[in-house]
Structures are given as C-alpha cells and as structure tokens.
Amino acid sequence: MTEQRQGPGAGSARARGGLRERKKTRTRERLLRTALELFAARGYERTTVDEIAARAEVSTRTFFRYFATKEDVALATQELIERWFLQALRARPASESPVLALRRAVLESWGELPEVAGLSVPVDLHLRTCRLVARTPALLAARLRRASESEEEMARVIAAREGVDPEVDLRPRVVVAAFGGVMRLTEHRWGAGQDGSAEALRALAVQHLDHLAPSLVRQWGGEDGGTGGVCGAGTCAEPGDRTGLVPRQSATAEPATGTARTSPADGEAVPS
Q1: What is the 3-state secondary structure (H, E, C) of the chain?
Q2: Residue 157: partners with Cβ closer than 8 Å, 6 or more residues away
Q3: How many CB atoms neighbour CB 248 within 10 A?
Q4: What is the pLDDT of residues 161-203, one digit of tens each?
Q5: Which of 8, 35, 49, 107 is most buried, judging by how many CB atoms fall within 10 Å of its CB?
Q6: What pTM was estimated for this model as a whole?
Q7: pLDDT, tens digit (0-9, with 9 covering 90-100), for 207-260
Q8: Contact 70, 157 (CB under 8 A)
Q9: At CA 153, angle to CA 202 and CA 163, rounded to 5?
C-alpha cells in the first residue's frame, strides 16, 4: 500500500478551516444571545434587526448570513430542542407503544434542556424566550405553523417504528395530532402561569400527558375524576393494540344494548 503524503501546508489549511468555523459559530451564538436578550428586555415587535446587529457589533448584512428573518432568530432555540426531541424519539425502544415513546422522548429531551439549550444560550434565557413566544401573537402563529412541519416528521418516525405507511394508515398522524395538541396546551398554560421554570414546564407536561389516554378511552364521570389508568369504567385497551388508545368492553362490563345516548356537551349520539 502506498502511503499518501500531504503537502506541508495541509495541516495549516485544516487549522485555518477549523478556525473559520469556530468564528462562525461564535458569531452566530453572539447574534442569537443578543437577539433573545433584546426581545426579553424590549419585546419582539419593538426590536429591529439593525439594533440586534449593532448590539452584537456586526453588520446587518452579517446578521442575514446567519438568520433569514427576525422570526428565525426568535425561534432558533425552540427548533433546536425539537430536533433533539426527534432524535430522542428515533432512539426509543421498538417495544414501546407510540404514546409511550412520544411521552418518554419529550420528557427525556426536556430533562436534558440545560445541556441542549446551553450549547447556544443560557437555559433561563431560552425559557424566557419560550414564554415570550407564547405571549406574542406573531411569534405564536409562526411557531404553530412550523410545528405542523415538525409533527409531520414525528408521524413519519412513528410510522417507521410501527411498520406502516403514513400515506395509507391514518394512525401515526392521528396519535401525533393528539400528542401535539396536549403539548401545545401544556406550553400555553405554562406561558400564562407565574412559574417560568423548567421544572414547572415538565410537571405540567406530565400532568397533561397522564390524562391523554384516559381522556380518550374512559367513560367520564367516574369516582376517580378521570385520573385512573386506561382500564376501568367498562373500557380497556384492546389486547392487540400497542397505542393504548383503542377502547373495548371489559370482561366485567355490562353487555352493549345497541341503544344510543346523547352527549350533553355536543349533542352527538354515541353507543352506550
């Protein structure tokens, strides 16, 4: 085998390339941190790109090399966490149901929030930005628009885990839509609350996720107020179903009568 020799300038060229990349990373992080600090202090709408660039001691042209819009910089750390979540979801064991894999992946990624967000900005600044997004109509609309793209990717990950075609089988998108709705509710309540800590966000997520499956499969109005598991009140998970969301009559439930009852909430007739 012939040994490949490098010219005398190869090492220094690599060093220069590495130095350029590190400088780019530092510039991007400085712009990101400066923007989020200004948003937190002055508000998103009242902060301009020119002000961000000036505070970061770069030109406006340099800002646009790293971020296409002011919206992009405002949502950058949240999208970083979403990518981390998708990575965690792909790594969940195949034996876990879709709902369980989604739940554990989101709690795992939030549990690592200081490490992930801290790669770019302090975690407390990231959390303040999340609350800012929840309270700023323009940013919230942008966040919801981008969330639909993320949920499409989540559905494809779930479909691949379960070995189904998401273009034919509706279940991956349905379960992701339910999960995404719960997470948006969690973020909304956390953003509107007094406690803006990561611990409060995680606790709210656990509380809401605990009610996801029971809300879908249980008859409401039981003595436990809907806080029980997926079996009870005459329903239980179908043995062959790995989502934990398909109801069936339990062995002890009274046989169906074939009649219908009317839901007082929306007037829809449902089997009793």
Answers
A1: CCCCCCCCCHHHHHHHHHHHHHHHHHHHHHHHHHHHHHHHHHCCCCCCHHHHHHHHCCCHHHHHHHCCCHHHHHCHHHHHHHHHHHHHHHHCCCCCCHHHHHHHHHHHHHHCHHHHHCCCCCHHHHHHHHHHHHHCHHHHHHHHHHHHHHHHHHHHHHHHHHCCCCCCCCHHHHHHHHHHHHHHHHHHHHHHCCCCCHHHHHHHHHHHHHCHHHHHHCCCCCCCCCCCCCCECCEEECCCCCCCCCEEECCCCCCCCCCEEECCCCCCEEEC
A2: 86, 89, 90
A3: 14
A4: 999 999 999 999 999 999 999 998 888 888 888 888 888 888 8
A5: 35
A6: 0.69
A7: 998 888 788 776 676 555 444 444 433 334 444 444 444 433 333 333 333 333
A8: no
A9: 105
**HSE-CB for 260 with a 13 A CA cutoff:** 7
Instruction: Tell me which amino acid residue 212 is.
Output: L
In the chain, the amino acid numbered 43 is G
State the Cα–Cα distance between residues 136 and 43, nearest whole angstrom: 9
